Amino acid sequence: MPGLRLPALRGCSRGIAVTMSIARLSADAGVKYLLKTTAHGDVTVRNLTDYYTTSGNPPGTWLGAGMDGIGLAPGTVLTDDSARAVFEGALHPVTGEPLGRRHGQRATVPAGPGPKTGTSARYPVAGFDLTFSVPKSVSVLWALSPQAVRDRVLAAHHRALRDTLVWLECRAIGTRTGRNGVAHVPVRGAIAAAFDHWESRAGDPQLHTHLVIANRVQRTSDGAWTTLDSRTLYKAVVAASEHYNGLLFDELRRSLGTETELRAPASAERNPSRELSGVDAGLITEFSARARVIELEKDRLVRLWKLEHGRNPSDATVLKLRQQATLSTRTAKDAQSVPLAERLTSWRRRAEGLGCTPERLITATVEQSRTRPLTGADLSPEWRQVTGQLVMNLVAQKRATWNRWNLLAEAERVCADLRMANPAERAAMIEALADSTQTFSVPLNDYRYIAPDNARADLAADGHTVFDPLTDQVFTSARILADEEAIMAASHATDAPGLEPWDAVTAATATPDSGEPVLFADQQDAAIQVLSSRRRLDALTGPAGAGKTATMKAVSDAWQQVHGPGSVVALAPAAVSADVLGDALGLGAENVTKWLYESNGPGAANRARRYLLAEHALEHHLDTGPIQRRQRQAAQVLAAVSAEQSRWQLRPGQLVIIDEASMVPTYQLAALTGMAAAAGAKMVLVGDPAQLDSIDAGGMLGWLDRTGRAVRLTSLHRFTHAWESAASLQLRAGNWDGVLEYERHGRIVAGTDGRMIESAYAGWAADEKAGLASILIAPDNDTVTVLNRRAQEDRAATGAVDTRHTVPLADGLTAGCGDVILARRNDRRIRDSLGGFIRNGTLLTITAHPTEAGTVSCVRKDTGATINLDRSYLSGFTELGYATTAHRSQGITVDTGHIVVTEGRLTRELFYVGMTRGRTTNTAYVVEPDTDADERIDPIGLPGWPEILGQVLAAEGAEHTAHETRQELQDSTDTLHQLAAEHDYLTQIAADEDLTDFLTTNSPGSARDLRRSPAWGPAVAAWKRLAAHDRNLAEREVLNAMTPRGGVRDLTAIIHNRLRAAANLHGAPEGLLRCPGNRPDLSNLVTQVEQRIRNRAKLVAAHIPTSQEPWVQALASQLRNIPDPDRRRRTLREILIYRDRWAITDNTNPLGTPVSWEEPDMQNQRQRLQTKLSPVIHPRTGPATENVHPYQPSHSTRDMGLRI
User: Fold this and answer.
1) Which of 112, 279, 594, 1035 is 20 to 30 Å from the Cα of 484, by its Cα?
2) Where is this region: Disordered (predicted)?
3) Residue burial 945-962, b: 16+ Cβ < 10 Å; e: rest
């Protein structure tokens, strides 16, 4: 493919709607719901036709490569008994034997802190529900087609689902083992049950399947049953969803000849969707909008009201009836168990009402493809290289760092239009693209170990050790690293213009005639530092309400007094926020994208071309015609073009203020940094890294703040109540105490969906009616639409809005005279009466009925200017403007704020923004799932408001830079804590084989039964510890424990208890103890880990902590009492190694605060260090022990015979 080149991709990447979701399934109730809503598998279903005439959903079927382990074949119809055995009891469905540990031995599932204690919800996890839902156009085709076509659609869905499961089994289905899940090891496959469902809660066709993967897998290496590695599974969900989409459309192309197309979203903020060509958008709307169900129910209630009262209801009554319909339509999904055949008839009638017949739909959709599906042979190496570069550019645009799952997902999106010949070809193509993309990426964490030759499955997979799985590697790009380095360098450079210190102090502390200072003390200090620092790049950060804008107003005024008018350039990430900044500073401001476009982007390139043409014309016409007139014309063009370019160029001595800088992507900041350096200007970034981050790769303001290179404002001045200032800071830090404070003051309201939306609306409407400036914030665009419709109906009922003459908007609603609308796109061609252009985020009030052409007259709410908007702009780029999202609310300050919170929609940053807009009150309305109506299959795991807000606080969305991520990865993988866990895993394998060999020799046939016990792992650990000290004693204890005796239910537990007791009598051995073993691959990897342990121990011991660390200060005075300097240094090194070994983060106590969950050897090592330090810290406890080794791993970390 000669001539292939890479197009510019900035700003063109958009996500596609995800069609697969994941949720945990509790052992107590999750499967019960599925069984309740299916035709029972205990009763034979003769053929597919029976599914259409039977009430309920079809019985589930077993799937997965792990089915061999439970004696069932994939495709077997699931019975109630087998499902309950596997999912509820973790039992073999045939033999009844435990599949590893029973569910009664519960794991903690993080579900957010509780309302009082901050504890996590605890319940046994039986499995994970992966819900595969076909795109709406596919559901429509399935629902309206004849049975032959419908069966092929269903078969395509089933094949795509099964192939996706196979794809997951090869890449994501595994188990974690060892301390802290240090090793990711392969398993034989998944045990899964698939349950088909036909419809949504609203009764619309929604073909979807719940694929419930059991939380039990069987290790490939030894056949042991263990739990699924859910961490990796969750990371893989988005990539798996994209892969399923591709497989589904591939299958539909092969079986039905369909084509696909990308459908534009209803509004600018929604994702586009890929749908089947030929399925009309009206049909999709008919079968997907819940608003339609509400409207139908409202119409029914209105008719009943008219029959009862003999007259039409008033607008107020209609409004109440609609509210009743909103609540009444949220019924349980299985409230009516209707046979599928009846549903199909109903759906066809609705489609016919829109003029669509099955025949017409088939003609428009089926057998439309005229191209051959692709194979790998069709895709050249050059295509893979170029497309791989495209994938990396798209990923790098959205994030500073990425992993293989991100690459796989983006590769699927880029190749969404490619139809492949079979599943293997699609998987191979995507893997090849991911491999190609990785070659263009820069790894941030290397593979630490070399996989030994011929390594077994317990040590390596896919060419990498179990400690370094392929999908754990993190990448960035050379461009991102270079951009970050340029910004970091600018923050250290001190050659920028500024004010003399005394001038800065005078300006910052100036007082007007009133005698009151303009700035508070912390604002004065910040202004002085920014004005006088001489750093090329400064940053000013502070929480919401700290007065960042007021501080920068003082800085701007002071700078212009010294450097003259025009010496301050004000920039912001969006046009509306630039307007706000310009008004606050009293000067013109622009958005960053526009500035870059005009200064060195396409705008500058266009002016350069015009300049060259004029210059050429000037030279060309010197010898012909009326020379003077043509020279003048050319000179005029040159002057105008150069003047325009000069307007967009930085000059020496200028100050560039970038507000809301956390929302500006790194590549833009780097470009501005370069311009400022070249011009001899200074930049200052302003914002709050705890608020919204850039949608592209970012994190630089956060880096400046975290590394102490930002000037921080600390006091708050926005809130009326002092308690709210303190509570908002708690929210900002993710501290649960902040939520409790809001709850104590009645600012947390909780309930079901409809009630919370109504309560939030009512609170906002009451404040607006009382003359207060209020903001109504929703967690997503769908809720914004619901609230906007609610507000419009209310205003229409009072006569404030005329809904008889309306224009269509982009959100699917309409607007009439009196409505408030929101512009969602910048358009510099549409100008208002004051000369300003329409901006994304501008609020307007419609002041007149629309013209025949659909144009409306509006008044801008920010400036009062009038403006006319035509039908095209209204229908494409406007929405009703009563409610807003948290993202759009940043930068707004009002009297009161009302925010609706739903599960999984808000990050901590968004919640913090939403809860800090109001001066006097900010109230959160938390939507708790309705157990009767929630779509999820497991009501046990549905969270209450404390869990929902706990999840919000835990969802930190602020991005870290690639440089920070690299350091964090290194810090987390090269600690003694991590390395000891890896060594522990390896020596446990050696001890396991050693004990098995001993049992096989001395008690043939016993090992297999003993290994089935949950006590086998602890017994191996105790055997290893004791055998390292006295092997003969360990062997005697095992043989004595196996002496025949009656009533023993678990002989392995007896062996464990005897070995542990004997080992404890001898205490914890010092140093690293190697267990016997004769596997070359195991010995090889043990040696590699031990070398890393030595290197890390030397590094830690050589590190002398700074005296600023509180725990060092606490120890320093006592250490001075040790006269021997060598002993002082040894003592400090031993404490450093202990802290690294046990991951001590306590910053006040050198040995950390003792906790109840400490392991025995951690306690032993602590006691030995305390004894050694006793003359220093506890002078009455006796002399110190001199022979404490600086590194003492516990018996549970598999002590090895090797000294550091």
Assistant:
1) 594
2) 94-118, 1181-1204
3) bbbbbbbbbebeebbbbb
Q: Which residues pair with 174 in a beta bridge?
A: 186
Segment 1-7 long-range contacts (CB within 8 Å, at least 24 positions apart)? 1/380, 1/382, 1/383, 1/386, 4/382, 4/383, 4/386, 5/386, 6/386, 6/389, 6/390, 6/393
Decide: 897 and 777 in contact? Cβ < 8 Å: yes
- The residues of the chain that CATH labels 3.40.50.300 are 484-600+653-712
Question: SS3 helix, strand, coil % of the chain, rounded to 5?
Answer: 50, 15, 35
**Encoding tokens for residue 644?**
């325009």
pLDDT given for residue 335 in this prediction:
46
Q: Which of 127-136, 616-625, 724-733, 1017-1026 has the lowest mean pLDDT?
A: 616-625
953 token code pair = 């606080």
Backbone angles phi, psi at 356, to 5 degrees: -110, 125
Q: How far apart are CA 301 and CA 626, in angstroms?
A: 82
Mean residue pLDDT of the chain comes to 85
Q: What is the 3-state secondary structure (H, E, C) of 1081-1137?
A: HHHHHHHHHHHHHHHHHHHHHHCCCCCCCHHHHHHHHHHCCCCCHHHHHHHHHHHHH
Counting every residue written for the chain, the total comes to 1204
Is the confidence at residue 1109, as pLDDT, over 90?
Answer: no
Specify whether the CB–CB gap between 607 and 644 falls below 8 A: yes
The model carries a pTM of 0.86
Q: Cα(56)–Cα(58) distance, rounded to whole angstroms?
A: 7
Q: ∠ CA(441), CA(442), CA(446), 5° rounding? A: 125
Q: Which residue is it, tokens 């791993």?
A: 1193
Tell me the C-alpha to C-alpha distance, in Å, between residue 875 and each of 261, 384, 824, 832, 879.
22, 40, 11, 19, 9
Backbone angles phi, psi at 217, to 5 degrees: -135, 160
pLDDT in tens, 982-1026: 999 999 999 999 999 999 999 888 888 898 888 899 999 999 989
Distance CA 701, CA 358 (A): 57
**Which contiguous run of DSSP H or E holds residue 1022?**
helix 1016-1029
The class (CATH top level) of 484-600+653-712 is: alpha beta
Tokens of 548: 């960042």
Greater pLDDT, 947 or 1164: 947
- Is 516 in contact with 688 (CB distance < 8 Å)? no
What confidence score (pLDDT) does residue 105 get?
46
Q: How far apart, in Å, are the Cα atoms of 73 and each of 90, 92, 159, 596, 1062?
A: 18, 14, 17, 61, 46
| Cα separation, 948 vs 371, whole angstroms | 49
Task: Check: CB of residue 90 under 8 Å from CB of residue 28.
Answer: no
Burial class of residue 500 (count of CB atoms within 10 Å of its CB; 0-12, 13-18, 19+): exposed
Reported for 148-152, long-range contacts at CB under 8 A and 24+ positions apart, including other chains, are 149/256, 149/362, 149/366, 151/48, 152/255, 152/256
| CA–CA distance, 347 with 1171 (Å, rounded to integer) | 79
Given phi > 0 = left and psi -120 to 50 = alpha, else beta, which region is 841? left
Tell me, what's the pLDDT at 1000? 92
Tokens, residue 1193: 């791993």
End-to-end CA distance of the chain: 57
Short-list 659, 744, 692, CA closest to 914: 692
Q: How many CB atoms are closer than 10 A to CB 95?
A: 10
Token look-up 């090889």 returns 1084
